[in-house]
From TrEMBL:
Enzyme class: hydrolase
Protein name: Queuosine 5'-phosphate N-glycosylase/hydrolase
GO MF terms, alphabetically ordered: hydrolase activity
EC number(s) on file: 3.2.2.-
Keyword set includes NADP: no
């Protein structure tokens, strides 16, 4: 049975959900916030490449860097009972979470490790990757064995099928984000982020879609990052964006689910509650996107555009910038390779 697309999965689960609810008033108010961000240029395509850890040159090396990072881009949270976080220093700055991963990859490159070459990482050992991702604190990077397994899987496929570079996979997609998404989930099983929900096979595809979104953003929608259908990509369903959506009043949890999350109990990957959180985020952001487009049309603004990727960037950045404030909203804890 083929999976539904992430967009249709979001719509379907939102209709059937028992624990997660989308609030229309919150959708409207968040859309106004996004519109103001577009007008002030605080929300734009430039944000990705402006970060000091992201590739600064739009070339094939940037594509292979993004592919490695997004192959490892999952599960950075620390257990509640831990006294510290996984932390990586690079060029005099300390980073946690996703940015700690970027810093560790850049540090390895500076040290002469061929970490973006699949000929190297298709055989990388647990010991080697542990060293590459080494922490400044007592907290190591989580799920090292799973990260090694991912690298072995995708590395061998790139070497055997795509001449050792994700660029060759990208070029087969003919500038179609949907064709590239299909190639990724078909050829690289660790990107196949799917679940069964009330008898429906739903797809969330967080890492596959963020891989496409990151290439698009890094290349500013040009060259290797040009896709005719980039707006078909949804937001990237993770464990942080829900905090922002709840903060903005666009999402609400049942009392039962909120109590589970506050207790720190982990939600199994593929459980109904976990699927509802992620799928409802996809649908909520799609609704915000539609409303922003309606507001742009209403105001006759033709030189600004929006999609779910840019809204995702805003919500993810907002959570980091207001971390203390949003810490009162629990995030769902699920250990898996998908996000």
């Amino acid at each position: 049975m083929n999976s539904l697309t992430p967009k249709i999965s979001g719509e379907l689960v939102a209709k059937l959900a028992k624990h997660v609810f989308i609030l229309q008033n919150g959708i409207f108010s968040l859309a106004k916030t996004i519109l103001n961000g577009l007008k002030s240029k605080t929300i734009s395509l430039e944000g990705f490449s402006q970060h000091e850890l992201h590739p600064q040159v739009s070339d094939s090396a940037a594509v292979d860097w993004i592919f490695v990072v997004d192959t490892l881009n999952f599960s950075f949270w620390s257990p509640d009972d831990s006294s510290c976080k996984w932390e990586v220093s690079h060029n005099g700055r300390k980073y946690t979470g996703y940015f700690a991963l970027c810093a560790a990859i850049n540090r390895a490159i500076q040290e002469g490790v061929q970490i973006t070459d699949p000929n190297y990482y298709c055989n990388v050992s647990v010991e080697q990757l542990t060293h590459i991702l080494r922490s400044d604190t007592a907290m190591p990077a989580p799920m090292i064995k799973e990260r090694v397994s991912n690298l072995h899987e995708v590395g061998k496929i790139l070497v055997n099928k795509y001449k050792g570079s994700f660029v060759n996979c990208l070029e087969q997609a003919d500038n179609s984000a949907q064709k590239l998404l299909e190639l990724i989930i078909t050829d690289f099983p660790c990107y196949r982020d799917e679940a069964d929900y009330q008898g429906h096979k739903v797809a969330l595809y967080k890492r596959a879609q963020i891989l496409i979104g990151d290439i698009w953003a890094s290349f500013r929608g040009k060259g290797l990052g040009f896709f005719t259908d980039i707006d078909s990509i949804t937001m990237f369903a993770d464990y942080r964006i829900p905090q922002s959506l709840i903060h903005f009043g666009a999402l609400k949890y049942s009392d039962e689910l909120m109590a589970i999350l506050k207790s720190g109990v982990e939600l199994p990957s593929g459980s109904p509650e976990e699927v509802e959180i992620r799928a409802c985020c996809i649908h909520a952001v799609s609704l915000v996107c539609e409303e922003v487009r309606r507001l742009l049309r209403e105001e006759g603004i033709q030189n600004l555009s929006i999609n779910s990727i840019l809204i995702d960037h805003f919500l993810w950045d907002y959570r980091r910038q207001h971390a203390e404030q949003l810490e009162t909203i629990p995030f769902h804890k699920t250990r898996c390779i998908y996000y």
